[in-house]
Specification:
Arp2/3 complex 21 kDa subunit ARPC3, single chain, 3 domains, about 60% helix, binds adenosine-5'-diphosphate, alpha+beta, elongated, Helix Hairpins, Heat Shock Protein 90, five-stranded mixed beta sheet
């Protein structure tokens, strides 16, 4: 047998076994294999069957044999078939000692055939193992590395020619040196590829950060413009009325009261704005610590409606009797309902009523605010909860606001352990639904409040 006649053939088996043990970097496509170059050289150097047997033995991955015997035998069989077939084609066209002009076409035919056989085997394995259609496997290989896919194996196969010639001319040790150099070049190449991938990722992340910063900057500029406009309006009104009151004494007490009422309302509006900004800042810096206590939802709803001033008459309250008391942060809940109700009033015609309703649902409470106003375009729903975001619609925009209301609502609902969703139909109105736990899971009410809460619950027929 040729293997025994050439004891150095066992050296090739050892080389292939060692190459199989080296960790392969995960490169898409068929990979960048030095072992392929050795297989091509074998196909040129030995009788096809002997070359196939050497490749078969060299592909025996003893490490994985126990865990994945089928995969290992598949790999061995594949090496046997491809190298035998490659060798047969090579020897059919030329012999190993012939001049380069005759050697080259034989070598190319051999390398390409072996590569095609390797790809076909990979496609067959994917079909057999996962049922993936061949076209899809090829498309995936190609998409993952369009230029590397057809280039890697045949590219590496080219080294088979110098390896075989060097072996014939100089013997085994220079070949080992060449293979060592090849491995080094391959490692460098893979490192460069992976670094390139990492750099591309970094660049992409950098681009995203820059885009986000630009957006934040734009938002800030817009915010300064909108907020100063919002503050200027009530301040101008306050100054105007105070100046009038100072300049000319007003004898009519009713007129004076009306003036003072306007000043008070505008000051309240200013205070509301400042509170909104403070809450937003506290939320952003994680300084908003919720204070949980037992609260009556009815009371919170009444207060919120009262806070609407002249518009309170437009709100219809839908509160069933005997609602459970909530263990929650009363102030946050008031701000959530207040903002939703203000929007409902703001974004619907003056003659249209709005609704604030509550329903118990097991250990949760469902609260909703409904209006019959302009509604919100579907395309805007994703963004209305963003900071400083305002729908750019001239039909609804003459109204006031700084684009922080819904953002605060969403954040505060999160603090209260609840969820919020919106249903809306342009032209038909919107309904914001908030679902809150009756008892916040993290809530630790003070002992006195706990006792009071328990007592209050006992006095209610359907208490918590
Ligand atoms: P703003 O201060 O502008 O009211 P919000 O954060 O409260 O800011 O709301 C964001 C945007 O969502 C508003 O600019 C408005 O266009 C839209 N919006 C909020 N609530 C309603 C509603 N009930 N009906 C129609 N549009 C609404």
């Amino acid at each position: 047998m040729e293997l025994l006649a050439h004891p150095q053939a066992l050296g090739w088996v050892a080389v292939l076994l060692a190459l199989g043990l080296l960790p392969q970097a995960a490169v898409a496509g068929p990979g960048l294999s030095v072992a392929f170059a050795v297989q091509v050289a074998l196909a040129m150097l030995y009788h096809p069957v002997a070359a196939g047997v050497i490749a078969f033995l060299g592909a025996l991955d003893l490490h994985r044999l126990r865990r994945r015997p089928l995969t290992v035998w598949w790999g061995c069989g594949l090496a046997l078939v491809t190298v035998t077939a490659g060798g047969a084609v090579f020897h059919l066209v030329a012999g190993q000692d012939e001049p380069l002009a005759r050697l080259l076409p034989a070598f190319v035919a051999c390398a390409v055939l072996m590569w095609l056989a390797g790809v076909a085997a990979m496609v067959a394995a994917a079909r057999f193992e996962h049922g993936t259609p061949p076209r899809q496997v090829l498309a995936r290989m190609n998409a993952a590395s369009p230029y590397r896919f057809p280039a890697t194996f045949p590219g590496m196969g080219w080294f088979g020619l110098p390896v075989a010639r060097l072996y014939l001319a100089e013997g085994f040790w220079p070949v080992l040196l060449l293979l060592g150099l090849l491995l080094y070049a391959r490692t460098m190449c893979l490192k460069a590829w992976s670094q390139r991938g990492r750099l591309v990722d970094l660049l992409e992340r950098e681009r995203r950060v820059v885009a986000e910063l630009r957006e934040v900057n734009r938002g800030k500029e817009q915010f300064v413009a909108v907020a100063s406009h919002e503050m200027r309006t009530p301040l101008t009104a306050i100054l105007g009325y105070v100046t009038t009151l100072r300049r000319q004494p007003i004898d009519d007490p009713a007129a004076r009261d009306r003036f003072l009422e306007i000043v008070e309302r505008q000051a309240q509006r200013l205070l509301g704005l400042v509170e909104t900004l403070l809450t937003a800042s506290n939320l952003e810096h994680g300084r908003l610590a919720a204070r949980f206590d037992w609260a009556s939802v009815e009371d919170v709803c009444q207060e919120v409606v009262e806070g609407l001033g002249d518009d309170r008459g437009r709100v219809r309250l839908d509160l069933p009797p005997a609602l459970p008391r909530l263990l929650t942060d009363r102030r946050c809940l008031g701000q959530v309902l207040g903002n939703l109700l203000e929007n409902a009033v703001k974004y619907s015609p003056r003659q249209q009523p709005c609704e604030l309703g509550v329903r118990p649902d097991g250990d949760r409470l469902v609260l909703w605010v409904r209006d019959h106003g302009a509604g919100i375009p579907r395309s805007e729903l994703e963004r209305i909860f963003d900071r400083f975001y305002q729908v750019d619609d001239s039909d609804t925009r003459p109204v006031t606001g700084i684009g922080l209301g819904l953002h605060l609502v969403r954040e505060l609902v999160g603090v209260l352990g609840g969820t919020i969703e919106v249903q809306t139909r342009p032209g038909a109105g919107s309904r914001f639904t908030v679902v809150l736990p009756v008892r916040h899971p993290d809530a630790r009410p003070p002992p006195a409040a706990l006792a009071a809460g328990a007592a209050a619950r006992e006095t209610r027929p359907s208490g918590t």
